[in-house]
Amino acid sequence: MIYIGLTGWGDHDSLYEGTPSSEKLGTYAGHFPIVELDSSFYAVQPERTMAKWASETPESFSFIVKAYQCMTGHQSGFGPFEDKEAMFEAFIDSLQPLGPKLSMVLCQFPPWFDCRKENVQWVRYVKEKLHGYPVALEFRNQSWFSKSMKERTLSFMEQEGWIHSICDEPQAGNGSIPTVLHPTHSEKTLVRLHGRNVYGWNDTKDGKWREVRYLYRYNEAELDEWRQHVLELSKQCKDIYVIFNNNSGGDAADNAKQLIQSLGITYEGLAPRQLDLFD
User: Which of 61, 65, 146, 212 is the Cys-Cys partner for 57 at CB 3.0 to 4.6 Å?
Assistant: First the structure.
């Protein structure tokens, strides 16, 4: 099965017209069967909040939960937690209300997290702490997929049971990775489409990177390229999850719907859609 969705549900204005913020998730779930939950990256979410989000979505809906930033080294220390054990325990507790709606946890490591022994050991530790959960691994440093390390990295992911988070992103130096179309898990593969804004990828001036990094709209030729990639991946892996993360200019929802249409997919079990005035 091929599941297609977006990063978050709050920023996609084309899906909402006069929809209160409190109702956006339910509306979103009328368009897409999955969502990447990125608020969990910035703070471990309270269980009551996760339970609320689960209750607002249909039975067949699922969440890709992004790992808390201190778990993946984006921030030093353990945030508000006493130690790493308490941090992981709180994160795992936060997952419980999702139940079967949890499709996977996404562990995305930062651009400075390069391929060396101590980092491999931390990746192993994270996987151990999340034992029993489907977990996807995404790197942002090219060293993991250098000519000498690519096959070793993929073999490591297979042996450790990681879901490969395959990326489409600008080739903009060491802080970006190539597209490696290689599933490492027989059940699930994640594809994250970040856009190809090579000029904005490393633009961190004035702290406005969020406004420019993912400012990109895939054209028809690029979407057709990914249509073919996704179909090929689906021959090698049971379920393919595709997330559009090109959110900076509001292009993700439109691009996702284009890909759904080009693949001829009709999702069953979406939330009821509110009819327009003249429907």
Answer: 61
